[in-house]
Amino acid sequence: MRDIKRIIIHCSATPTSMDIGAEEIRRWHTAKGWKDIGYHYVIRLNGEIESGRTIDKVGAHSKGQNKDSIGICYIGGSDEEHNPKDTLYECQEEAMRELIFSLRVVADEELTIHGHNEFSTKACPSFKVSEKFKDII
Prior knowledge:
Elements: E1 6-11, H1 22-31, E2 41-43, E3 49-51, E4 69-74, H2 90-107, E5 112-115, H3 129-132
Parallel strand pairs: 1-4, 1-5, 2-4
Antiparallel strand pairs: 2-3
């Protein structure tokens, strides 16, 4: 198992009218020449958690930050014109909190939680993780 210290939260940068999941994102990423989907987990619009890369594999979700992190992507994060917008549904947030809790148990340590926007100029995940998840950071 690799040494995991952080969870980095992402959005798919799609409007909520696009009900996609891990397989669609996998196709997008492999079409770019990547080995697999860049994220370890995808949270669909209905709160269903889908697996991406296995957590023993380094992800491809946040340039320069992948070695010791797990990438979680929620579907959404933009309005219909593809402008950044916090579209995280309550069921997605609940699923994300449960997933974070489970990952911390498996890692047997307090993994830190970050937004992709902390490591890039992108708006992703279209909200401030330090505000939305302040109770568990």
